[in-house]
Amino acid sequence: MHPETHEYYMQQALKEAQLAFEADEVPVGAVVVLNNKIISRGHNQVELLNDSTAHAEILALTSAYSSLGSKYLPEATLYVTLEPCLMCSGALYWGKIGCIVYGASDEKNGFRKHIKAEQSPFHPKTEIISGILQDECTWLMRNFFQLKR
Fold first, then answer.
1. The whole model's pTM is what?
2. Residue-wise pLDDT tens digits, 87-111
3. Which residues bind Zn(2+) (predicted)?
């Protein structure tokens, strides 16, 4: 697989989600890509850090800002296995991320539940792409919660 494809980077986000799964965290993973290179990674660490804001996106963004010495990412793409929640959407808005690619939809907690269809919680220039490796991302979430029941 050519490294510049959405599927390749979503596979990398899925590897992060698998780390969360193995740590008994909700299995969400994220990577930030700039100039066809992964500059940061993150997976949910809410339980480990005892921090309700320790979502994969937030951790990946913080790492990206730190590595670049910048608080904005207009040229970067975030790949995340699950539709961002409203909190993460706000962080992505303020970071002016160029593109957000997510796998599985989240009808319960995703940003689309809280906005009108024609609105976007993201920066006006942010491109949104959904459904990349959706089946794989959905399966990991369903499997995690089935094991919890």
1. 0.91
2. 999 999 999 999 999 999 888 876 6
3. 55, 85, 88
